[in-house]
């Protein structure tokens, strides 16, 4: 293992420890300084489902830093703030989230929609459809298959891109709209699985669900995501800030 | 002058220097560490016009940290992120922006809507109506009267609250919608006047216009504010982040 990778893993492990202790958002704000993982010239790729997709334009998907290509969700909001904060960093940011996708569908398009882009930073938010589609009777997956397939996807990614900096986002729901109490405790099993995928890979973990739980004490869950799954502009802004803090920006 | 006030002014002066050099948003992101001015137990008041008002509910205006009372604009988004980042800080945040207001209208309601709240931190964003209403023929004000009246308002505030921490926000427009090229260079005179109000009072200056000028290179101005004056959710998120960085959060 090269020193630069060891440093990254050490930093990430500290971030995970902080996240576990208090939620990365809160920890980043006061006690713990999270080291910035974004370097000059980095190719940054956002991957996931509809929350990442957020209406992005397919025709311009190959153009980095393009608002339409990045959509209207947290990926674009976080990207715009990164690009404005670091105008000279020569970052190239892409979004390849697709609505409705689960882990196996990411795997099916991983060469074209991840590895071929040669990302230096990969951020993944996946999982809500893995539980939602199963609950609707349209999918056979379980928290166990989610974790196994997710681990395999990350291993495949690291084999192809050994120095990649990984950002694993916690799947989240708000307790409103389509999301009923009987999503729990099953949903927590998906959150825990994602946290383990982050931990065993020394990845940054972005605690979206934990942050939305706290936010729901400040304003009703519907304020952050009317249907419990897709964030409002307020939920989107909160996600962007949480993501930026988690990566140390 | 008490030491704590001197310290605040020294900190603020450094922040203004940074803002002048590169825009506080950019400077805060990399070269310059802006010291946090928000302390435990602070009463924080947002004041201004429609951009601050942002549909806030009047009935709940006396309830701190209430989403409806804080509206749907940058004041609420910045507040929610502050409250989530510092849940134990016992902050009490209010919004008293009113649509359409100019400096003289702030002055007319300043006792009830500022001094009586005994704010520790006062953030003011005012100016776009001062030029807009004059251009429409509904107001006689000039950049000179704006600066004079704004300076008097701040002096009155400091006389009543000698240790108040002041945040003066740069008035901004985007070059689209209602805003045509012939708003310039007159609009710049209002921006400069606000910067001077900040500087002579040792206040934090939040460079909204400069940030939106940069943002308009990343995505069209309409993306950030369709009518050139009232920010979209993306403009709102950018304002919240810019404000939080300027106050060192």
Biggest sheet, spatial arrangement of strands of chain A: 2-1-3-4-5
Indicate the overall shape of chain A. globular
User: What gyration radius of chain A follows from the Cα positions, in whole Å?
Assistant: 17 Å
Binned, the helix content of chain A reads: 40-55%
**Terminal Cα separation of chain A, in Å?**
26 Å
Biggest sheet features of chain A: 5 strands, parallel
At the third CATH level, what is the topology name of chain A?
Rossmann fold
Major protein interface: A-B, 31 and 31 residues
What's the CATH H-level homologous superfamily of chain A? SGNH hydrolase
From the coordinates shown, what is the CATH architecture of chain A? 3-Layer(aba) Sandwich
Separate helix tally of chain A? 13
Number of strands of chain A: 5
Oligomeric category: homodimer
How would you describe this structure in keywords?
homodimer, alpha/beta, Rossmann fold, five-stranded parallel sheet, 13 helices, disordered N terminus
């Amino acid at each position: 293992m090269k020193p630069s990778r060891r440093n990254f893993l050490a930093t990430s492990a500290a971030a995970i420890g902080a996240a576990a202790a208090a939620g990365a958002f809160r920890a980043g704000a006061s006690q713990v300084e999270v080291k910035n993982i974004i370097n000059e010239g980095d190719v940054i790729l956002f991957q996931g489902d509809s929350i990442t997709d957020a209406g992005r334009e397919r025709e311009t998907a190959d153009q980095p830093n393009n608002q339409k290509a990045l959509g209207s969700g947290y990926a674009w909001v976080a990207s715009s703030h990164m690009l404005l904060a670091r105008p000279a960093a020569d970052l190239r940011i892409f979004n390849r989230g697709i609505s409705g996708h689960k882990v196996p569908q990411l795997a099916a398009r991983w060469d074209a929609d991840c590895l071929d882009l040669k990302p230096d930073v990969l951020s993944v938010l996946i999982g809500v459809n893995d539980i939602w589609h199963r609950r609707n009777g349209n999918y056979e997956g379980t928290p166990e298959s989610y974790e196994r397939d997710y681990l395999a996807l990350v291993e495949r990614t690291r084999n192809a891109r050994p120095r990649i900096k990984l950002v694993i986002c916690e799947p989240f729901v708000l307790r409103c709209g389509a999301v009923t109490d009987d999503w729990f405790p099953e949903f927590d099993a998906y959150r825990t699985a994602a946290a383990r995928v982050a931990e065993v890979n020394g990845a940054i973990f972005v605690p979206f669900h934990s942050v939305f739980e706290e936010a729901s004490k400040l304003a009703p869950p519907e304020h952050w995501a009317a249907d419990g799954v897709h964030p409002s502009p307020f939920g989107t802004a909160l996600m962007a800030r949480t993501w930026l803090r988690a990566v140390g920006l």
